[in-house]
Design goal:
The complex is a heterodimer of chains A (345) and B (559). Chain A contains twelve helices and six strands. Chain A has 345 residues and is mainly alpha-helical. Chain A has one domain (24-56, 120-342): MetI-like (MetI-like fold, Orthogonal Bundle). In chain A, strand 3 and strand 4 (97-99) form a beta hairpin. The relative contact order of chain A is 0.16. Chain B has 559 residues and is an alpha+beta fold. Chain B has two domains: 38-275 and 544-559, 3-Layer(aba) Sandwich (D-Maltodextrin-Binding Protein, domain 2), CATH 3.40.190; 304-532, Dipeptide-binding Protein, domain 3. Chain B is built from 16 helices and 20 strands. In chain B, the strands form five sheets. In chain B, strands 12, 13, 14, 15, 16, 17 and 18 form a seven-stranded mixed beta sheet that branches. A five-stranded mixed beta sheet of chain B has the order 8-9-10-1-11, with helices on one face. The chains are: A mainly alpha (345), B alpha+beta (559). The interface between A and B is large, with 33 and 47 residues.
């Protein structure tokens, strides 16, 4: 690995406990594991992921509800009393119907119902599953594409670099949200990619859209790093002794770039969760009756006054997840980015 | 008769003192009303409704305002209840004199009426206004006014429209004679809606957009920015000629602000910052309003209905059994709940609203043995679905994109899924959905929509929404969204239209029969009849709801 820290010592070096000799990845992992804030955030994050994965278990085995089916005329039993899920107002002129609020009973409409009488907590878990899955897969695709484009442009240079860089410039020239919304509006009714057909309700569409719009965000710094690496002594030496380009890319460039990519993972997750929620909130992401945290906020928007938890719960879920990812991201950066070694303590 | 007998029986002094009391009360009431003249009424709405041109705009929001700005030759009486559906003379002295078997109608223009720009109203303005309906290709030119002699030529070449022989004016006597190609029992209604407003003859033959056109009403538009606000002020040239047709108003100014959400509108009225909001209060505020501000709420029935329109010319709803299955499966009470509860709407299985001409209660799509709507019949629906063989078909359901419509769409999507369809919900903006679902080029299979009366006649629901003449393939103006054109039903519609010319009472019986026939063929799934909920500030008094054009803003007291 290149010693990128060399010559950057402008502040006092933070003394770190001596670590046994091991590879850079193991070293980074060891540093990460010693970061209590990052580990706490990871723990909370894993709990959220586990809860979301358990959505069908909660809906079918505990709450006995269908999170995607309207239940306007539904009734539930609370302490032996039958209560309508949507309660007609009986005061004054008797106008309006209000969904049942949080019951405080984990197995029965814990966070209350939405305007269609559906269990908000069950939808929150299903929504989290979709939000995290879309953000996660989009992150993997975006990073893969970003690293591929960045390495190709940076290493081969010339016309390839010019072409790819201008393409990235064009893509990056559009505001990310505007571009994502525009693509979503165009593709929302489904898309045919060769033999593959994705209908309007397919989660593949938001995944593809979110993946595409952030590629420049990853590719540009990767390209810059590759340009630096390309002129480093070990790469020049490898070129000098006639090592094939593919081998240089695989053995010398990629491992050095991967640390940057790893640092990007939590950041990309944060941005993708935000973008997915925004698209779904605007009805151009996850489509009904599927749920995501964004769609649930939209469902709750019309109930902000009487049943604020419908919108607050997914909002809190997003905030908590993003907070955990940011703390974890800081820890990952400190562990994997060598420059953090010289950061003031 | 009764008063005279009182005098003859020696009760004259008593009667005289009673009459004096009545006179005193009337004088007091008049004085009290005069005390309320003045002030500014602050109205708010989520958005504006496009062009200000009364011969083009086709929205309830602006038709409501046009009532105090423009006049037609006739008008719907400005009063509450069923009396508000009565047609009265407005710019003319009497109701039309009908001759030639209903094909000729003659009216005489009132004298001394002036537009807001100071020009006197003449018969030339009347002729020019009817020509302008065609010259600007008004939205109802081909459907409402095509019965005029000369209309065919005007529809073909609008720029050179003269309506020669169709609208004939005699300047000297002030008479105007309409010659129709066929007797039209609803022609008087059509003369009373804003598309037949009389405008100055020199009004350009183009959509005037944001530029106000002078009218003859009690108020005139003095400012309009569709992104911000609209202002109405008193017409300085107005002198009341008929309180039934064009009553003078109370507020001096109506300030109409656009851009507030419905939530913000409610809060503004609660805080006294606004007096009235056009949009219905959002569902989650109804309970609060109902409990805390019952005296500021006005709930009035509307001649309207919400319905699902099936495209009967496309898979899978070209199958009658599939359409009937949906009708049986939909729980109208559930949709009423989503809309705001039983006090805000009533479930229905038919196309004509209750208490509407031709209405005869009919509801086959409910539980066995029930004559009134008593919930969905899912067993029957699933049986029909099985017979249809359409289970598994992919269906795209279109709806509007605001919360209430999307919730209703979500419910319908659930029901269709339960029946075995593979359903995707496609919300569209309010501004585009209604025209989009009308155009057959868009291949809409099924849509959720609504219909409000233009005027109180059964044909405005049954012929406009289900008549063959209302189906225009590849056009944005094809209100027969279902594309339904059934020979048997069409014959009944034409018969009812013919009979209505001579025997309106019998025609109403025939319209009831048409309604049943359409329900049985199920080109639509009628859902519920909504009610209008108006929330006003504490300073608003004298609220009146006109059944055709809704609340009469200029009759409200804000002082």
């Amino acid at each position: 690995m290149a010693d990128t820290a060399a010559g950057l010592t402008v502040s006092p070096v933070v003394a770190r406990p001596a670590l046994p000799a091991r590879g850079p990845w193991a070293t980074a992992m060891a540093i990460l594991l010693q970061n209590r804030a990052a580990m706490s955030a990871l723990f909370v994050l894993l709990c959220i992921i586990a809860a979301c994965l358990a959505a069908p278990l909660y809906a079918h085995q505990i709450a006995h509800v269908d999170a995607f089916q309207s239940n306007v005329d539904g009734e539930i039993d609370i302490d032996g009393t039958t209560v309508a899920v949507l309660e007609p107002n009986t005061e004054g002129l008797g106008l309006g119907v209000t969904p049942i609020g949080p019951t405080g009973r984990f197995a029965t409409y814990w966070l209350g119902a939405d305007s269609q009488g559906r269990d908000v907590f069950a939808r929150l878990l299903y929504g989290g599953r979709n939000s995290l899955m879309i953000a996660g897969i989009a992150t993997v695709i975006c990073l893969s594409m970003g690293v591929l484009v960045g390495i190709t442009a940076g290493f081969f240079g010339g016309l390839i670099d010019t072409g790819l860089s201008r393409l990235l410039d064009i893509l990056w020239a559009f505001p990310v949200f505007l571009l994502a919304i525009s693509l979503s509006v165009v593709l929302i009714h489904g898309v045919q990619l060769g033999p593959l057909s994705f209908d309007s309700g397919s989660l593949v569409l938001p995944i593809l859209i979110i993946s595409c719009v952030y590629i420049p965000y990853v590719a540009r710094p990767v390209r810059a790093q590759v340009l630096t690496l390309k002129h480093s002594d070990f790469v020049l030496a490898a070129i000098g002794i006639g090592v094939p380009s593919a081998r240089i890319l695989w053995r010398d460039i990629l491992p050095n770039v991967m640390t940057t990519a790893v640092v990007f993972i939590p950041l990309m997750m944060v941005m993708n969760i935000g973008l997915e929620s925004a698209l779904s909130y605007l009805s151009v992401g996850v489509q009904a009756p599927d749920a995501s945290w964004g769609t649930i906020i939209e469902d709750g928007q019309g109930l902000l006054y009487s049943r604020p938890w419908v919108a607050l719960a997914p909002g809190i879920a997003i905030a908590l997840t993003v907070l955990c990812l940011n703390i974890l991201g800081d820890g990952v950066r400190d562990a994997f980015d060598p420059r953090s070694q010289v950061r003031p303590g | 008769m009764k008063l005279r007998s009182l005098f003859y029986t020696g009760a004259a002094p008593l009667a005289m003192s009673g009459a004096a009391l009545v006179a005193a009360l009337l004088a007091a009431a008049s004085a009290q009303a005069a005390d309320h003249r003045g002030g500014t009424l602050h109205a708010v709405a989520v958005s504006s409704s496009g062009t200000l041109d009364p011969q083009i705009n086709y929205t309830t929001q602006y038709w409501q305002l046009y009532q105090s700005v423009y006049d037609g030759l006739l008008a719907f009486k400005k009063t509450d209840g069923t009396a508000g559906t009565e047609i009265v003379p407005d710019l003319v002295t009497t109701l039309p004199v009908v001759s030639d078997g209903g094909k000729t109608l003659t009216v005489t223009l009132r004298k001394g009426i002036t537009f807001a720009n100071g020009k006197e109203l003449t018969t030339a303005d009347v002729v020019a206004s009817f020509q302008r309906i065609f010259k600007i290709s008004g939205p109802t030119a081909g459907s409402f006014y095509n019965v005029l002699v000369g209309a065919d030529a005007c529809l073909k070449t609008p720029d050179t429209c003269t309506l020669d022989g169709g609208v004939v004016a005699d300047e000297a006597t002030g008479t105007i004679t309409f010659h129709l190609t066929d007797a039209d029992p609803e022609f008087l209604d059509k003369l009373a809606i804003p598309h037949a407003a009389i405008l100055p003859a020199d009004t350009p033959a183009k959509d005037m957009g944001n530029t106000p056109i002078p009218g003859t009403g009690a108020y005139s538009f003095t400012a309009y920015d569709p992104n911000k606000a609209l202002k109405l002020e008193r017409n300085p040239h107005f002198k009341q000629w008929s309180a039934d047709a064009q009553p003078d108003g109370y507020p001096d100014v109506i300030d109409y602000t656009f851009g507030l959400t419905d939530e913000a509108g409610v809060t503004a009225i609660e805080n006294g910052q606004a007096d009235w909001m056009y949009d219905p209060p959002p569902a989650d505020r109804l309970g609060e309003l109902s409990s805390k501000y019952p005296k500021q709420l006005h709930v009035s029935p509307l001649a309207a209905y919400y319905y699902i329109s099936f495209n009967v010319n496309m898979e899978p709803f070209n199958n009658e059994k599939a359409r009937l299955a949906v009708n049986y499966a939909i729980d109208r009470n559930a949709l009423v709940k989503i809309y705001g509860g039983p006090q805000t709407a009533a479930p229905t299985c038919q196309n004509l609203p209750p208490n509407f001409p031709g209405y005869s209660a009919y509801c086959p799509f409910t539980k066995e043995g029930s004559t009134k709507y008593a919930g969905a019949n899912m067993a029957k629906a699933k049986e029909l679905m099985k017979e249809s063989g359409k289970a598994g078909a992919e269906v795209a359901l279109l709806t509007e994109d605001n919360t209430m419509w999307k919730n209703m769409g979500g419910y319908v999507q659930s029901v269709l899924t339960e029946l075995g369809f593979k359903v995707s919900l496609k919300p569209m903006s309010h501004a585009t959905e209604f025209t989009y679902i009308q155009n057959t080029n868009n291949k809409v299979q099924v849509s959720l929509t609504d219909w409000f009366q233009d005027y109180p006649a059964p044909s405005d629901f049954l012929n406009v929404l289900f008549g063959c003449s209302s189906f225009h393939p590849a056009s944005d103006a094809s209100p027969n969204i279902a594309g339904f054109c059934d020979k048997e039903v069409e014959a009944k519609i034409q018969n009812a239209l013919t009979v209505a010319v001579t025997d309106p009472v019998k025609a109403n019986t025939l319209w009831a029969d048409v309604d049943k026939a359409i329900v049985d063929k199920a080109p639509s799934a009628p859902l519920f009849n909504p009610k209008q909920i108006d929330f006003v500030s504490t300073k608003v008094g004298n609220y009146h709801f006109q059944p055709v054009f809704q609340s009469m803003l200029t009759q409200e007291w804000v002082k």
